Amino acid sequence: MMFINFSLLNEIFRGFYIQRWNDRIRPMDLIEMDKHAHKMMIAYCLGKYEEADGKVINWDIVIKHGIYELIRRIIISDIKSPIYAEVRKNKAVFKELNNYIFKQLEPKIDNDVITKELREFLFSEGSEVIEEQILEAAHIYSSYWEFQIIRQSNPFGYQNIRLETDLLNRIDNYKHLIGIQKITNRHTIANFIDLTGQLRFQLRWAQVPRTPQTSVLGHSLLVAIISYFFSLENGACIKRIYNNFFGGLFHDLPEAVTRDIISPIKRSSSEFDKLIKDLEMQLAENEIFPLIEREWIDEIKYFIIDEFENKILIDDKIISEGLTTDDLNEKYNMPEFNPIDGVAIRAADHLTAFLEAWSSCSVGIKTEELVTAAQNIKDNYKDKKIGKVNIKNLYSNFRNVF
User: What is the pLDDT of residues 210-255, one digit of tens each?
Assistant: First the structure.
């Protein structure tokens, strides 16, 4: 059975409906999916700093635990964070909560590997390994980033000082992480964290009435998650999984400085599309890359330049022309080739866009643009496989709401 199916996709998509800080005045909706997307971008930065310091980071743990923690939070969305923190301290109660979560999710998972991974995540004893520290630190800082928005809308809230003190104290527990030191001391990487966080302000399909109104930030995380499951389907090596997840997560990074230009406009002519790509790279050079460490720039470029092409690296030269997913599976599925499945990331991007349109239509908010977009995407994949991913089977399970 496939690693990802209709039921699990729908469960993850629910993260776009869950509002955070919903007992506070908010200038905008703060959404669970956006928060976790920001968290994983911060985790990337923290992990890169620790690697540069000589530590070995198991990125497989960072990615998997990041995904499964999001799914856990979706199931228990009604539990406020302070209460959840207290529940975690009581091992017996926390185990019962995780039992409930597993029972809710197990019927929605078809694949034994995913069931096993989820069970191990939920029921393994908590550890202080560096990967867990990175994820927890990223989780707390992304919450603090949101709190700064909340504080501006609640300037006289009597709980502000207590909330801020609590968050800062929890962040301080991870001050041994180099990235946390740099972010809290407002090094330039803090500006990169701010820039990526601002992708939550950019709504996709901005001119089309629909629900939920997904942001570029949350959309990027769902693309990354689907890319992860596609990677498992293709038996990808850990470097390929890493590239596919973070390639999906950062694929829209240039939109932080260009805004979300809708696909029909981009595709209106090849010259216009090329001009937009050139402008994106020029703006990235001027406004994004100066905010990150010099050693990361080549990797980020690998993620965002020709982001939907399959690529490998041989003798420091990028090779992409004519490279199929089957080639990656059979010839280049090794870390030394630094493989990335741009075609699969593109398919994940399309599937996410389809979900955005389908979900709105399924609850009755339907426009010609949404119907046409969803139908075109579905038709485009009706006879396609991406390596071992039989993607047409995924689309066939969505009932017709058009």
Answer: 999 999 999 999 999 999 999 999 999 999 999 999 999 999 999 8
Assess contact for 174 and 321: CB atoms under 8 A: no
Q: Is 399 helix (H, G, I), strand (E, B) or coil?
A: coil
Task: Give whole-number Cα distances, 227 to 40, 256, 345, in Å.
Answer: 15, 21, 6
Q: Determine the topology of domain 216-396 in CATH.
A: Hypothetical protein af1432 (1.10.3210)
Contact 190, 183 (CB under 8 A): yes
Both tokens of 62, joined, read 């960072």
**Prediction pTM value:** 0.95
Class of domain 6-199: mainly alpha
Pairing state of beta strands 312-314 and 19-20?
Answer: unpaired
Cα distances (angstroms) measured from residue 192 to each of 97, 110, 165, 302, 331: 36, 38, 24, 18, 36
Domain boundaries, the chain: 6-199, 216-396
Maximum alpha-carbon separation in the chain: 62
